[in-house]
């Protein structure tokens, strides 16, 4: 049984005969009759009682007619929904977003994208880098924001932007008078850092090791605003993205550039390899790439 057979059979029923149905379908009556007969042969049952002047449905024919109507209706729904998705009139995107990335780069992007495409359901899963990556791997989310640059097996990286990392210190700290610092200048300092599931912490420790010292961690927190509040009170220093400075309301904090080209927060999208991207997701990726490039970060 195919869709054409169902459509032709339903047309015969609704037009109460082959002649009018053939006109409606722009077919010859003999062609239409052959198609309906082939459907009966395939189902091994009589669908239409042709013994009277006006054809009537048999019991089997009524079942095929009622179910066929539902099948065609479902197919129309599929076609309409696919059209809506391809034309961004509906859809669903689930994003894994670490808190710092979410705060710094995505509020405006998410707001303007949903204003542009109000019927696309955009949901956010906020967690540290390790958790959002696992959510991508297990299919909970469609895409994640990450600092990772190298593609892994089954994952593809889409670069977005680089945000310089700078040192945040209290204005009375001796380093506050310097125009820039090296990582080695920080070897005797007490650091306030993010918790261990954040890639930014891992990057900081790695770069410190490359500069031949292990950072002295005085305090750790999952909240960047708490970390900077402590810096504001003179309790240690922090290495965080420069763009955070635009959100600060702390009067006693100074930022200092770091003389190290590797000290950047590299923001990327990560998606599963070999998994087709939906049209709404492609649109969100392209929209983000275009919009985020207007964010100019400088630590000089």
From TrEMBL:
A molecular-function term among this protein's GO annotations: DNA-binding transcription factor activity
Keyword annotations of the record: DNA-binding, Transcription, Transcription regulation
InterPro entries: HTH-type_LysR_regulators, LysR_HTH_N, LysR_subst-bd, WH-like_DNA-bd_sf, WH_DNA-bd_sf
Gene Ontology CC annotation, any one: cytosol
Listed PROSITE patterns: HTH_LYSR (PS50931)
UniProt superkingdom: Bacteria
Residue span, HTH lysR-type domain: 1-58
Keyword field contains DNA-binding: yes
Pfam family, one: HTH_1
Family according to the record: Belongs to the LysR transcriptional regulatory family.
Name this polypeptide is given: LysR family transcriptional regulator
Taxonomic path: Bacteria, Bacillati, Bacillota, Bacilli, Bacillales
């Amino acid at each position: 049984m195919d869709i054409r057979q169902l459509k032709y059979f339903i047309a015969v029923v609704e037009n109460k005969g082959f002649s009018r149905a053939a006109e409606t379908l722009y077919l010859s009556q003999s062609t239409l009759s052959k198609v309906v007969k082939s459907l009966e042969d395939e189902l091994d049952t009589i669908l239409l009682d042709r013994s009277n002047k006006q054809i009537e449905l048999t019991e089997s024919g009524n079942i095929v007619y009622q179910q066929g109507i539902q099948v065609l209706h479902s197919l129309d729904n599929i076609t309409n929904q696919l059209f809506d998705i391809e034309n961004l009139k509906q859809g669903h995107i689930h994003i894994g977003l670490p808190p710092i990335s979410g705060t710094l780069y995505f509020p405006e992007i998410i707001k303007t994208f949903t204003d542009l495409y109000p019927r696309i359901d955009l949901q956010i899963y906020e967690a540290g880098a390790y958790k959002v990556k696992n959510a991508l791997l297990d299919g909970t989310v469609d895409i994640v924001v990450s600092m990772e640059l190298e593609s892994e097996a089954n994952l593809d990286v889409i670069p977005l932007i680089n945000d310089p990392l700078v040192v945040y210190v209290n204005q009375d700290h001796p380093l506050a008078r310097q125009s820039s610092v090296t990582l080695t200048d920080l070897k005797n300092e007490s650091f306030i850092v993010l918790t261990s599931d954040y890639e930014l912490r891992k990057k900081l420790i790695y770069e410190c090791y490359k500069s031949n010292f292990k950072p002295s961690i005085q305090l750790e927190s999952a909240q960047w605003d708490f970390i900077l509040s402590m810096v504001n009170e003179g309790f240690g220093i922090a290495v965080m993205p420069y763009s955070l400075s635009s959100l600060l309301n702390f009067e006693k904090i100074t930022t200092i550039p770091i003389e190290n080209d590797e000290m950047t927060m590299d923001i990327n999208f990560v998606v599963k390899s070999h998994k087709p991207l939906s049209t709404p997701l492609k649109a969100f990726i392209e929209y983000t790439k275009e919009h985020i490039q207007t964010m100019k970060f400088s630590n000089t």
